[in-house]
Input
Amino acid sequence: MSESTSKLRSIKCSSCGAPLSLHAGHKIKSLTCDYCGAVMNPKDEYKVLTKFSEQQLLSNSPLKTGAQGKLKGVLFTVIGIIEWCGDGECWIDYQVFSPTHGYAWLSYESGHWVFLRRTRYLPNKSLWRLLPLQSIKVNQQSFRFYEKFDAKINYVAGELTWVARVGDTTTLAEAIDPPYSFSEERNERETEYYLGEYIDAEEIQQQFALPDLYKPKNVHRLTPYKSKFLQPLAKAAKPFAILSFIISLIIWLFMQGSPVTIKPVVMKNLGNGQVESRYEFTINKPKHLIFLTMDTHKANALLNTTIKQKATGKSIVNLGKKNAKTGTYRIDKRITHVESSFIVPKAGVYSLSFIANTQLPVKKVAVTIKENRVGSRYFFWLLLLSLAVMIFSFVSRSSFESKRWKLAGD
Output
């Protein structure tokens, strides 16, 4: 980027004479030469404080000192680099500087980026006594303890706000609330606290003009759970689930309809062991949903269930034909239970008939008809669909969180 966060100056290394650029402000306490590893004191004319063996440039470092990019809307310059190794992993911390916002850290590990700043907020309990998943609070924000481990410096370069040497060690403890973290760092000299926030790799690549070589690998401890489809679907499904449950409950409690009087009329022997049973009933509220249920203990006893308008003989419901327009209906496999929801064209007397394949007394068939009923079937299916989406989203997120916490505290 062409914009600069500070006035660029340069000096020569007090040890090897290599040219070194200076980017930061007055709080810098050490400058480490990229070439010879000499650690110099900026407060004492860059006098060499210590020196370790020559270092090669880190091949896995996406950024170099002097790189500029915006973090949280503020233009920062990379002024120092430290490589740490601990707990079987290595990562790189970049000290960054802005003349207007001071010093911060940008941490890089396996394609993941975390922006960290020192904080004076203290946790409500000691991190060092916690086990993974136990909670702490920092400035009213809840975090869950993740891990604690020792780390050692493998590489140092550039300007730093403290004197860092290869071989120095520290102990870290971290609690997380993805995408945020709270960490405590202890060494022989001091204890420091940091608040961190996960930064999307694409944002870093765009801001620092990086090639598409540093894509995230695996799940990072601060990676926020994201699902392109499930997350928004689950969020949208929640109000639908609540609404459909409330409506279904109201319908079930108060809108089941009024019972209709049913009168047995005739049982007609059709021969071949079949008997037609017929009932009559009166509908007073047409064009409102009517609900029919029929139950018996004998198999195949409710064949060809039909409802007709008595005055015209017009068929309203015919469950004996697959292509009949019957509204909604359900018949069990043994044909011992029949349900149907339908609407009649006008008030009047209607007949219900069915054919049984055995001599079946009328009293052995339980027939119920209710008018002015409000159907809840669609709300029930909406409830099931909404719950399914929410459950699937929950399972997906749980699987993601399981990967996040798999190595915590090991």
Notes: The first helix runs from residue 201 to 207. The chain is about 15% helix and 45% strand. The longest strand covers residues 141-160.
